[in-house]
TrEMBL record:
Site residues by UniProt (Lowers pKa of active site Cys): 244, 287
Active-site positions on this chain: 57, 186
UniProt binding sites for glutathione: 90, 123-126, 141-142
Protein name as it appears in the record: GST C-terminal domain-containing protein
GO molecular function: glutathione transferase activity
InterPro entries reported in the protein's UniProt record: Glutathione-S-Trfase_C-like, Glutathione-S-Trfase_C_sf, Glutathione_S-Trfase, Glutathione_S-Trfase_N, GST_Omega-like_C, GST_Omega/GSH, Thioredoxin-like_sf
GST C-terminal domain ranges (all copies): 163-287
GO cellular component: cytoplasm
One Pfam family linked to the record: GST_C_2
Biological classification of the source: Eukaryota, Sar, Alveolata, Ciliophora, Postciliodesmatophora
Lineage top rank: taxon: Eukaryota
């Protein structure tokens, strides 16, 4: 973790002393949009955009999944950073499964930010959607990048994972999942007081129970239709047992210990476009070696053994 300040990288975590030991995520600063007609200044053309991601990061992995679901693999190029955040933040140093910065041959991701804005001050995060035409960062907010990919490109397929008639319900469940689960694991893991940790821990597992019950009689979060809400939940669930149970102390139950979540997770993992974005080596090394403030020894656990290719039966259970 760190910040760009006056063009220099500063290794710095979140200052929880000001927040009662609670983890407060900062807002993304690049928030422009790609649209089909280009009215936003960024038209959704094939080959125009480049995506910077980490396979360890759940937020970045959302964008890879939607890129797959929308058939945009040949339209949006990708660079994958080294999963282990260095003293200089995300790096393009060689690591199996990572790639160089094929656009500008940067060594560190912060250099990409400075190319977009030499006066940028703030956190350097993934994902980053880069516009090759104007040499600018369009967005570093994953929740908005996946919306752009869903409906802002003239290429790809016509599938819609955020249908108008379901948007209100999708938005409602997204808000709940983000606060209590997606960000909830970070609130627990980065808490620096017992009270802050216990609050986040309790909210997290209460929310998981709510979602588990919700999935009792429907295949997906919003009925029997796969939506962006499922993408957003999946990236946290697939990291839960291999990372969050251990390093973030989210150990009341594993996902495998719930009633409906294990089969739901396997169902998504086996859906084309999901499982091939998951790299457990990147995930485990990214968390256990990347958060030195939480795991100063950098030791990466050998377990657990996970198999998300086992049958899930949810398609047959709901007649789909």
């Amino acid at each position: 973790m760190g910040l760009l300040i006056d063009g220099k990288w500063v290794k710095q975590g979140y200052d929880t002393l000001k927040t009662g030991g609670r983890f407060i995520r900062t807002e993304s600063q690049f928030r422009k949009f790609v649209t089909k007609d280009g009215s936003s200044g960024f038209r959704g053309d094939s080959g125009r955009y480049h995506l910077y991601v980490s396979l360890a990061c759940p937020w970045a992995s959302r964008t890879l999944i939607v890129r797959n679901l929308k058939g945009l693999q040949n339209d949006i190029s990708v660079s994958v950073v080294n999963p282990i955040s260095s003293e200089n933040g995300w790096t393009f140093e060689e690591y199996e499964g990572s790639t160089p910065d094929t656009l500008s041959n940067s060594r560190f991701l912060y250099e990409v930010y400075l190319k977009a804005n030499p006066e940028y001050t703030g956190r350097v995060t993934v994902p980053v959607l880069w516009d090759k035409e104007t040499n600018a960062i369009v967005s570093n907010e994953s929740s908005e990048i996946i919306l752009m990919m869903n409906s802002g490109f003239s290429c790809g397929n016509d599938l819609n994972f955020n249908p108008e008639e379901k948007k209100a319900e999708i938005d409602e469940i997204n808000a709940f999942v983000y606060d209590k689960i997606n960000n909830g694991v970070y609130k627990a893991g980065h808490a620096t007081t017992q009270q802050a940790y216990e609050e986040a821990f309790t909210d997290l597992f209460d929310a998981l129970e709510v979602i588990d019950q919700r999935l009792e009689n429907q295949r997906y979060l919003v009925g029997n239709t796969l939506t962006l809400a499922d993408v957003r939940l999946f990236v946290t669930l697939v990291r839960f047992d291999v990372a969050y149970v251990g390093i973030f102390k989210c150990n009341l139950k594993r996902i495998e210990d719930f009633k409906n979540l294990p089969e739901y997770l396997r169902d998504l993992y086996q859906t084309p476009g999901f499982g091939d974005t998951v790299n457990f080596d990147h995930i485990k090394n990214g968390y256990y070696r990347g958060f030195g403030n939480i795991n100063p020894t950098g030791i990466v656990p050998l377990g657990p053994i996970v198999d998300y290719t086992r049958p899930h039966n949810r398609d047959r259970a709901y007649g789909i």
